[in-house]
Amino acid sequence: MVESIQEATVIDASGVYYRELNRQIKELAAKGVSRIELKNVYGQRYIGTGLIQKIDIDIYGTPGNDLGMLMNGSKITVHGNAQDGCGNTMNEGTIIIDGHAGDVPLFSARGGHIFVRDDVGYRAGIHMKEYGEKKPVLVVGGTAQDFCGEYMAGGILILLGLNLKEGEKHVCNFVGTGIHGGVIYIRGEIDSFRFGKEVGVMLPDEKDLATLRKFVSEYAAYFQRDVDAIMKGKFIKLFPKFLRPYGALYAY
Questions:
Q1: Are the C-beta atoms of residues 105 and 138 closer than 8 Å to each other?
Q2: Is the pTM of this model over 0.90?
Q3: Predicted confidence band of residue 193 (pLDDT cuts 50, 70, 90)
Q4: In Å, how far are 87, 142, 228 from 129, measured between CA atoms?
Q5: Under a CB-based contact definition with an 8 Å cutoff, are residues 44 and 60 in contact?
Q6: Where do the domains of the chain lie?
Q7: Structurally, what CATH architecture does the domain formed by 100-250 represent?
């Protein structure tokens, strides 16, 4: 069922098969609708995939895998949790998740921003890259599971650790394994043995802190947090020590 309410087109997704739901979204976007509200979403996959129009989509419920895949400039806000593959191979746009996200958010993204209020699963930001002026950014309010930032070739990944208790450390293992581009910022404590051997570690400089404040401010605005309080925390910067960490394994 589709209806227009207060300048937003509302779709009740109860029992709607994911292909039909995505067909409706793309038809509305092609007609010039600027804002869609999806109610009662329950695991439908590929919402917003391949959208070329710039449209705002508010999702109430839990979208399925590959939310915003290959998206090109739209804005998706999830009022709840999201599953795996958010922003898969994303080109441009913004995804805001007011809860947790599953595994591999921003997998192989060339651009676009994702802001997650709480935690993410495994392999967050794996193989993020950059293209021209585009630079993907993943900001996680909590922490991540293992292989965070694996094979990163570009972009910015930020773990804020806001859900950790006092004295509690990040416990994700193999952080930055195979990284050869981009940067990871971590707020809070984490043991160095959890990093991939390709990772260099340093304190952020003034330029880094300016970058952090920019994206932390955006995160704080979305989720009603205090940006100054967040920025008072201790940050470290992880960067690639080598441009071709596995070059000797494949070429001699």
A1: yes
A2: yes
A3: very high
A4: 13, 23, 29
A5: no
A6: 100-250
A7: 3 Solenoid (2.160)
